[in-house]
Amino acid sequence: MIRMQGIVKTYPGRGGQPPQCVLHGVDLRIRPGEYVAFVGASGSGKSTLMHILGCLDTPTGGRYVLDGEDVSRLDARALCRVRREKIGFVFQGYQLLSKLTAADNVAFPLMLRGVPEAERARRAAEALARVGLAGRGQSRPCEMSGGQQQRVAVARALCYSPRLLLCDEPTGALDVDSRNELLDLFDQLHHSGHTVVLITHDPFVAARADRRYRVEGGLVREG
User: Angle at CA 190, nearest 5°, toward 189 and 195?
Assistant: First the structure.
């Protein structure tokens, strides 16, 4: 599913400062259907790694193959296509539209893809049922708990059956009970065949994954 070889990311220096190398020769392989966590502190390079994994940025050097396609040197338009077709994102801040219902939030990416209204509604209802929110489709974000809002965000990511579910600090804004419920959901999605990649600073959250990588000082090591 994911193969990185010698991935380097360097940002140009500013104000006379030298360039800053944030990732140093990252090598990793993630097979389809795996549940993998990357854990690291703020400033370790994990956010940069997440942006490259999610095709939100490109590496300075090295090769990144996602689902059989070399995405290392794609332009912005091609990267947008890859994100649209292959990756479902779950972020810490939910990123729900406050004026839309849960069902409409889930269906919103499908609307952008031109999916007919009836099909959007059906797929949104199915996705909400998968995350345990059947019957809450007409609720708005302000009427839901943080954990429920994050489940809506997961449903939105699932509604177009992405090959990869990429979760960036998804538990960071949740209380302990909501965190554990969300991690149980990720377990279920993994066991149903989804490839789940989790970025976190929390070793407890990372421990739920089958494999773990530690990100530190721009280096990525398994274990």
Answer: 110
Q: pLDDT tens digit string along 28-85?
A: 999 999 999 999 988 899 999 999 999 999 999 999 999 999 999 899 999 999 998 8
pLDDT digits (tens, 9 = 90+) for 148-200: 999 999 999 998 888 899 999 999 888 999 999 999 999 999 999 999 999 99
DSSP of the chain: -EEEEEEEEEE---TTPPPEEEEEEEEEEE-TT-EEEEE--TTSSHHHHHHHHTTSS--SEEEEEETTEE-TT--HHHHHHHHHHHEEEEETT----TTS-HHHHHHHHHHHTT--HHHHHHHHHHHHHHTT-TT-TT--GGGS-HHHHHHHHHHHHHTT--SEEEEESTTTTS-HHHHHHHHHHHHHHHHTT-EEEEEES-HHHHTTSSEEEEEETTEEEE-
